[in-house]
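input
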Amino acid sequence: MAQTKDLTVGNPLSLIIKFALPLLGGILFQQAYNIADAAIVGRYLGAKALAAVGASSSAQFLTFGFCMGTMTGFAVPVAQRFGARDYDGMRRFVFCAYILAAATALLMTSLCAFFCDSILRILKTPEDIFGDARVYLFTLFLGTPFIIFYNWLSSLLRAVGDSKTPFAFLVFSTMLNVALDLLFIVCFGWGVFGAAFATVISLFVSGLLCALYIRAKFEILRLKKESKVFDIRTAVALIKIGVPMGLQFSITAIGSMIMQAANNALGTVYVSAFSAASKIKQFAISPFDALAASVSTFASQNYGAHKFDRIKKGFAQGIAAGTLLGAALAVLLIFFGRQLSMIFISAKNADVLDASQKFLFISGFFYLVIPFLNVSRLTVQGLGYSNRAIFSGVIEMLARIFVSFALVPTMGWTAICFCDQAAWVSATFFIFSYCLYLIGRLQKEAR
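output
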């Protein structure tokens, strides 16, 4: 029990912030690696290799996002049982989740590998980079079990209150990934295969470290003989939470793919501006993702402990902290968007800088919306109602599709600048209202 963290006692805001900080560090570190990885491929293999690696990024988000979301969902009942101090019940969920994770790995790896060429054709991958793109994507697809392995074990650790250890292993695996990139690409000359293989190995190592750490330090998570029973009702409960959370990622990815396709039709200037502005936007959104994940775990544990008033308090304080953060980030994007864009864009490309600055300027005014959206959605998921939260993803997707097809042809880049924001606002109306209703209903049922 020494390594776990009980979020059902203590100051909610303090617990949420402390739990969120390692999550934020992990997200930012991963994004920094993505930039370094792209730089290594582009610098040593050239522009075509970089295009081959990036050609399937939306498909990777679609498939791997489903896997990661599903594994996160499997950890929700574990956190609830931990909060209820029902450790035998918790271990039964853990065992069933292991079985379902293995089945998911087998299914997703088989499907993705079989349809690899078809996916690249659907994405209209140019013929001159198709071969490299296929090698890269196929290698990553074969590493799907390791992606699932790491994400399930890291979600399991967070479910019992440990967000620091997954962060530490992520830092190590990220540094290993960069080192292997250089070894396989520069020294061995393995090209894009080396880049993909480095990612697969680093994910395997990080998952293995999580497994060894759990075995050594978390006696509470060691499965007993009576826990090793595959119960259909337990499995169904996991699937009802995990699959909708996975679909949440995939549905969001579909909307983003359509939005990106609409932007690509506007020309090279706007493709470059969108690429630069999106990287900055994702960095700026990272704190909200970490905060929301923290509130979600807090809600899960307190749901298990039947402390519904505490859930309401943690939710409100999470929203308040996110709003203050959103105000600070809004100022940064509105007034310093051009300077931030120059991290990626040379000053001589004034037209690209102008477009990127416009994107960030408009985005900044909507950053106060994001904490309401993210915290509400993940709180609903943390309470076990991920099938309701999925509607917010559907709303986001529909909003992006509407803007992409109805407004981009006439408004061009301006419509792209409002596309994400339209999705955020539309989804927030639903999920924030539902979250308030759900917490209120739970409070009434407890009285």
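quick obs: The chain has a mean pLDDT of 87.
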